[in-house]
Amino acid sequence: MEAIPGGAEQAALRAALAEAAAEIEQALDALLPPPEGAEARLLEAMRYAAMGGGKRLRGFLVLEGARQFGVARASALRVAAAIEMVHAYSLVHDDLPAMDDDDLRRGKPTCHKAFDEATAILAGDALQAHAFTVLAEEDTHADPAVRAELVRCLSRAAGPRGMCGGQMLDMLAEESAAPLDEAAIGRLQLLKTGKLIEFAAEAGAILGKAPGPLRHALAAYGRELGAAFQIADDLLDATATAEETGKRTGKDAGAGKATLVGLLGLERARAQAERLAEQARRHLDALGERADLLRALAAYAIHRRN
């Protein structure tokens, strides 16, 4: 099926993204412990890192995937909040002096700047642990097998063959005298960014106990979307201002990071992102018109300015 054309499609998507972001913010507020007791500083840092900004793209993917299969919104929101906690933890650690050493994130001081490095490390650790607590609780889904599958898949996406492994590859690439080729950069970005986005797209199908082919289609959509999204991020780092993105730009080139933009140049990288977005959209054919917002998201992901 064809998606809603042009401006109407993007207007519908923007409204849906804003609504989802507000709902996810409310879910995070309810699920993150309030800052009280002797450990209040840690809890405050967790909430500072996870709330009050961000596109909530991963959470939106969970909600839209779940909507395809009639999953209760409250259940989907818990999973969306959990993946946003994991994403927030990764950003807190990525911003540390030992990693990318950034002082601005989502238009405000990074967690280690607002608090201190030790508190930021603990806040990231606690956000990751709390995300799995949320997934494992019965309120997320009545079926323990579904909860176990969510835990298994998110831990795999975030672990040594996922986000953490990708971050390691990224750090090793900075130290290497030989530049990475296109295949090596693609694998780095698949692990560092793509695996979490792939899980976010697949999570709704897990919640809905969807047939295997549809679950695989959403996972494949997320995989292509994640690759396109990362190229778009690299393009923004090369072309956007800090005011547009809410974070420091130009850092990839300055740090000698391995990116497809650096390897291919701006125009070829843009063309590659367009191809990936189109491939992502094709994976949704079996879902018909109800997946139009997911199709629109593929276009948004590569044309955004923040």
TrEMBL record:
Coiled coil stretches, renumbered: 263-290
UniProt xrefs under PROSITE patterns: POLYPRENYL_SYNTHASE_1, POLYPRENYL_SYNTHASE_2
Residue stretches spanning the membrane: none
One Pfam entry name: polyprenyl_synt
Alphabetical keyword list: Coiled coil, Isoprene biosynthesis, Magnesium, Metal-binding, Transferase
Cofactor(s) annotated in UniProt: Mg(2+)
Family: Belongs to the FPP/GGPP synthase family.
Protein name stated in the entry: Polyprenyl synthetase family protein
Organism from which the protein derives: Caldovatus aquaticus
